[in-house]
Amino acid sequence: MGNLQVTALKCEYRTNPLGIGAKHPQLSWQIESDRRGTLQRGYQIIVANEVGDFTKPVWDTGYMESDQSIQLVYGGPELLSRARYHYKVKVWDNLGRESAWSEVAWWEMGLMDQGEWQAEWITPDESEMDPQSEPAFLLRKQFEVGGDVLSARIYATAAGVYELYVNGTRVSDELLAPGWTSYPTRLQVQTYDVTDMLQRDGNGIGILLGDGWYRSGMGFENKNFKYGERRAALAQLHIQYKDGTEEVVATDTTWKASTGAIQYATIYHGETYDARLEHSGWSSANFRDDKWCATQVCTDVSFDVLVPQENASTRVTEVIRPIAYFVTPAGDHVLDMGQNMVGRMRFTVSAPAGTRIELKHAEVLDKDGNIYFGNLRPAKQVVTYIVKGSGPETYAPYFSFMGFRYVRVEGFPGQENGLPLDAFLGEVMHTDMEPTGEFECSDTRVNQLQSNIRWGQRGNFLDVPTDCPQRDERLGWTGDAQVFISTALFNYQGGPFFTKWLHDMKAEQRPNGGIPFVVPDVVGGENSAAWGDAAVICPWTVYQYYGDKRLLAEQYESMKGWISYIRSQGDQEFLWNTGFHFGDWLALDAKENSYIGATPVALIATAYYAYSTRIVRDAARVLGHEEEALAFEELYQGVIQAFRDEFMTKNGRVAAPTQTAHILALVFDLVDDEVRARVAKDLNELILDNDYHLSTGFVGTPYLCFALSNNGYHETAVKLLLQESYPGWLYSVSKGATTIWEHWDSIKSDGSFWSDDMNSFNHYAYGAIGDWMYRKIAGLDMDVTVPAFKRIHIEPMFGLNRLSYAKAAHTSLYGRIESGWQVDQGQIQVTVRIPANTTADVILAGAAVGSVKEGGNSLDTLIPGIQAISEVAQGVRVLLGSGDYTFTYGNSDLFRVTFNEHSRIDDVLDHEVATAIFQKHMSSLFEGPFLNFVRKSTIKQLGENTMTGVTKQQIEGLLEELILI
Question: Which of 167, 686, 740, 772 makes a 20 to 30 Å CA pair with 885?
Answer without folding.
Answer: 772
